[in-house]
Amino acid sequence: MRTVIYSMSVSLDGFIAGPGGDIGFTAPDEEQFRFHIQQTRNIGVELMGRGLYEAMLVWETAETWADADGLEFARIWNAIPKVVFSTTLERVEGNARLAGTDVASEVARLREEPGEGVISVAGASLASTLIKLNVIDEYRLFVDPVVVGGGTRYFPPLDAAIELELLETRTFGSRVVYLRYRRG
Q1: 16 in a domain, yes or no?
Q2: What is the pLDDT of residue 184?
Q3: Residue 29 lies in a domain
């Protein structure tokens, strides 16, 4: 069975975006970006909502603007199959397909499919749904040394605690701390 991960940058106070949707504090430095490239190599399928799907479309044209690391990331990223959950999009581009509205069934089907790599969930809204369905196996947080005071939370409000086991930590030169937890 394939592992489902949720990986995002997050402020020290738990937000993936600050007030007004500001994500400027999440921009990785070169060391962290290289780490992201290595992690992206292990993604077998990416699950995403409309907002993040639209934001990541920029990588489809990376050859016109990206440096060597950006081109490497784009090559890896664009090859990953993406499943987009949206009630407003009529079509998607690149290596993506629109999913139905039954998120639980879609994830269950993907977990059972043969294939290499993890199932990566991106975007707080979709992740919130999957967290509440208790299907996230690993949480991977890139904790930025900033307090933003509000915005979009990494975790949704929960009715019960989620017990986690720490698997890995790493501190980057930028003072960002990577934390990798498995559901206990």
Answers
A1: no
A2: 86
A3: no
Q: Around Cβ 1, how many Cβ atoms within 10 Å?
A: 9
Domain count, the chain: 1
Whether the model clears a pTM of 0.85, i.e. scores above it, the answer is yes
pLDDT above 90 covers a percentage of the chain that reads 92
Residue spans of the chain under pLDDT 50: none
Do the Cβ atoms of 30 and 163 come closer than 8 Å?
A: no
The single-letter DSSP state of residue 42 is T
Helices 124-132 + 103-112 axis angle, to 10: 80
Residue range(s) defining the domain that contains residue 115: 34-167
- According to DSSP, the residues that pair with 147 across neighbouring strands are none
15 part of a folded domain: no
In a domain, 175, yes or no: no
